[in-house]
Amino acid sequence: VHDYDIVLEILVINRTPNTLANLTVELSTMGDMKIVERPQAHTIGPLDQMTIRASIKVSSTETGHIFGTIVYEDTSTMEKGYINLNDIHMDIMDYIRPATCTDEMFRSMWAEFEWENKVAITTSITDLMEFLNHIVDSTNMRCLTPHDSQDRGSFLAANLYARSVFGEDALVNVSVEKKDDGKLAGYIRIRSKTQGIALSLGDRITSVQRGLPETK
């Protein structure tokens, strides 16, 4: 994955004793992606293999999917064959970069941006700073709010900011408190100009917030 392009390399292995003719990989995409270079048709001999390439251009930051089907003709039986490929999931994290802005700029963008996604905090983490650092690390964002790591209060609020390689802004506000039972509760709000970032970043936070990754 480069900033704006995805180069897809598909290794095709013919494990049959027959020659496969007119073999093509038919691709389709979901999300803001466009297939620039479609794979050409090939002929693969018995027990042979080849690498087929395709180029896909990405034009905005959102979670996308690439679907594919291999189509071929068996020259011995003259039958057509179809093989559905597992879909490829494109991660929003490939396009998000930590960035910085002033408090005034953050507040201005927060008021301006119309797309908001609100995620309820559900986590096994019990330390406020540990939870904040985990969210920052897991989303490629930068925390704009200074915090004392020694502070052991029961409430924490922070603003996070990132920009995509396409120049799109992503704003996050974390508001979390420690309940009497030791568990954390609150909300993480995401705002952006585009729905794709707000939804994709919300999905990312939902999937990683539950706990710290296991250390091997």
Characterization of the model:
The protein has 216 residues and is of the alpha+beta class. Helices cover 17% and strands 45% of the residues. It has 3 helices and 14 strands. Strands 9, 10, 11, 12, 13 and 14 form a 6-stranded antiparallel sheet that branches. Strands 2, 4, 6, 7 and 8 form a 5-stranded antiparallel sheet that branches. Strand 12 and strand 13 (169-178) form a beta hairpin. Helix 2 crosses helix 3. The longest helix has 14 residues, at 195-208. The protein is elongated, with a radius of gyration of 23 Å. The model has no long low-confidence stretch (mean pLDDT 87).
Outline:
Helices cover 17% and strands 45% of the residues. Strand 6 (64-74) and strand 7 (80-84) form a beta hairpin.
List the helices and strands and how they pair.
Elements: E1 5-13, E2 20-30, E3 33-37, E4 42-44, E5 49-58, E6 64-74, E7 80-84, E8 88-90, E9 96-98, H1 103-112, E10 115-120, H2 128-139, E11 142-143, E12 155-164, E13 169-178, E14 184-192, H3 195-208
Helix pairs in contact: 2-3
Percent range for β-strand residues: 35-45%
What does the largest sheet look like?
6 strands, antiparallel
Annotation, overall tally of beta strands: 14
Principal-axes shape call:
elongated
Instruction: Tally the helices.
Output: 3
User: Which series of helices and strands comes N to C?
Assistant: EEEEEEEEEHEHEEEEH
Q: Which whole number gives the mean pLDDT?
A: 87
Q: Which structural class matches the secondary elements? A: alpha+beta
Ends distance: 27 Å
Question: Which blocks of ≥5 consecutive residues have pLDDT under 50?
Answer: none
CA radius of gyration: 23 Å
Helix content, binned percent: 10-25%
